[in-house]
Amino acid sequence: MRSSLKVVVKVGGFVFSSSLRAETLSSYAEVLARLHDEGHRLVIVAGGGEEARRYIKAARELHASEYACDILGIEVSRLNARLLIAALRDRAHPTPPQTIPELQIAFQGGRIIVIGGIEPGQSTNAVAALAAEAIDADLLVNATNVEGVYTSDPKKDRKAKKLDEIDTEQLLRLVIGGEMGAGGYELFDPVAIKIVERSRILTRIIDGRVPENIEKAVRGEAIGTLLKAAGRRGP
Fold this sequence. Notes:
By secondary structure, this protein is of the alpha/beta class. It has a single domain (6-228), classed as Carbamate kinase (3-Layer(aba) Sandwich). It contains eight helices and nine strands. The protein has helices spanning 22-37, 49-61, 66-88, 100-107, 124-134, 168-175, 190-199, 212-218, and strands at 6-11, 41-46, 113-115, 139-144, 149-150, 162-163, 165-167, 203-207, 225-228. The strands form two sheets. A seven-stranded mixed beta sheet has the order 3-2-1-4-8-9-7, sandwiched between helices. It has a two-stranded antiparallel sheet with strand order 5-6. Helix 1 runs parallel beside helix 8 (212-218). The longest helix has 23 residues, at 66-88.
């Protein structure tokens, strides 16, 4: 990889848990600040997390539409994005762009861009893939609360094995039966996978519970699971 990269990092909603801790956000900010100071150009996508799911659950109990539930999830993810912006201080663009064109314009300013959700029906994983596509990113990093992609759900199956590498067709087969309602996206949803595939975005799915793993991924270390477009050859 080149010494200076355009990188999109999806920060999983687990970072914004019900026991929201400023120390956790500060740890992420320190890692992202170091990468920025090294010359890497960053877009960060904040997930909605537990708070988004809590709002969506309440909305469904009130018989709200899935569209309305999606809007709630988007708004919560944007609040999470503002928390990261606060942690990054002057290194970050001051507000979360709300569309991909706004993101592209803001990206030209050289600061770290932090965004949340954008459109109903899209997970923040899909937003991250779209952002990577829009800025022609060299790398998409998906920081999750597992060590990578497994053959099955490691929380339910003790025999699940972590994969060092997988292509988009294989991953699509693994997740195609997953929940696609508002707030139900896990790991990488089919929309995000297809965006990665069509634009051949090099993607690494890592354990984001250790923020320093983001640095390792950007520096080319073989951690987590490497996701490549089906048919792609080489790194």
